[in-house]
Write a structure and sequence with these properties.
about 35% helix, alpha/beta, six-stranded mixed beta sheet, globular, four-stranded antiparallel beta sheet, Rossmann fold
């Protein structure tokens, strides 16, 4: 299978006064097309830093990041903004929907930011909402949605610009088991349908059977679980 995201020997070191703190230690991971990988581990183990580096929100101290075979480690700030907007989708613990925008407009705003406009963007939004069972909510505002519906909107928004990889940070933390499982299954189904890839940081072991692989992070190191 084609590699969508590859992290090679990633280190992240912070300066804390006179002390150097190594948050990530020689971390490597290869994520293939069609794969949903779960990253588990205790709080403070480096999971959030890892996800930020994988999503080009944070630069590594050392190492290489390949996205769809292209080294993005030394991309310019302008190039990185383009990569984050068009190549990477994000789903956070809280859906972070804009309260004054309807469900459909949440998606269309992202399309507009990347230069997509008009009927093509609208059709894409409609298809995504239909696929995630949200057509009847297209003109609702976030305060009228359930927790599971909000997360489904967040997933639809993350796919709006057809990214190569989707990164999810504790997407089920505020949901009950049934709704959480529904959200993760939708995420897994979309990854396989589109032959993309996804990484999900989670503490919820009830969702791990829906993932293709599980890796464990502890003290800044990554290993197979």
């Amino acid at each position: 299978m084609k590699s969508k995201l590859r992290l090679n020997n990633i280190r992240k070191v912070y300066q804390d006064g006179d002390t150097l703190v190594e948050v990530l230690k020689d971390v490597s991971l290869d994520v293939k097309a069609g794969e949903l990988i779960a990253v588990v581990g205790p709080s403070g183990s480096g999971k959030s830093t890892f996800l930020s580096i994988a999503g080009a929100l944070l630069s590594p101290t050392e190492g290489q990041i390949l996205l769809d075979g292209i080294d993005i480690t030394k991309a310019s700030p302008t190039q990185m903004n383009h990569i984050r907007l068009n190549k990477i989708g994000f789903v956070f613990q809280n859906a972070h929907l804009i309260p004054y925008l309807t469900v459909q407009d949440q998606l269309l705003l992202l399309a507009e930011l990347s230069g997509q406009r008009g009927r093509e963007a609208s059709k894409r939004a409609e298809k995504l909402l239909a696929r995630l069972g949200l057509t009847h909510r297209a003109h609702n505002h976030p305060d009228t949605l359930s927790g599971g519906e909000k997360q489904r909107v967040a997933i639809a928004r993350a796919w709006m610009n057809d990214p190569e990889i989707l990164l999810a940070d504790e997407p089920t933390a505020s949901l009950d088991s049934e709704r959480g499982r529904s959200v993760v299954k939708m995420l897994a189904d979309e990854v396989k349908l589109r032959e993309k890839a996804a990484i999900m940081v989670t503490h919820d072991e009830r969702m791990l059977d829906l993932c293709d692989r599980v890796v464990f992070m502890e003290d800044g190191s990554l290993r197979s679980k």
